[in-house]
């Protein structure tokens, strides 16, 4: 990893008495070392005053979801891990998860890991949101899915409604739309609608449509791969849970029935 001296510093505030940081602390990458400079404590905490290549090695061994939690711990780690130059750390961490598909181009590593491993609803933060619809690259609780899926066919923008393939769609239903049918993700529809409304001539409009079709095709392709991996991952995780709770023999017997 290339290490350059940076002049950027950030200030963090202590939120918890057990935090290793002083009340007002600045962090900077200085001569290739991640260093905390404390207004109160003269000597940086030894854990973080270590060469970046060692930090890289340590963080690369952390499971992706733990790395994400680490990045959320405080501003220093967030600043370091969310920096684009830290992408190899995330990549190495993801490499530990068996058969995890490569990070799709339209997502950052933290976004991808959040979607795959974090069970919080991306709208209301409900902690047991199990439903990921990979076609829409989103995880929500049942209530939020109900509000965020739509059968809007954009008939104001397209005679006869939007054509297949312009936006991602999934055969689904909600508590509001109880008959399973092709639904779209409301943020996608609204974003596409704004793009079309902002098109000042037909050439720009056609380019906007072509771009949407290309993006949809790529995202659908990646979604199929991720969906297949996720089903296997969730099944494996369920089996581990069942064996820990009920024992290997009982679990194997139940599965074989
Ligand atoms: Zn929710």
UniProtKB/TrEMBL annotation:
Q: Which InterPro entries match?
A: F-box-like_dom_sf (IPR036047), F-box_dom (IPR001810)
Sequence ranges assigned to domain F-box in this UniProt record: 44-93
Q: Which domain of life is it from?
A: Eukaryota
Coiled coil, from the record: none
Q: List the protein's name.
A: F-box domain-containing protein
Organism (species): Piloderma croceum (strain F 1598)
Q: What is the lineage of its organism?
A: Eukaryota, Fungi, Dikarya, Basidiomycota, Agaricomycotina
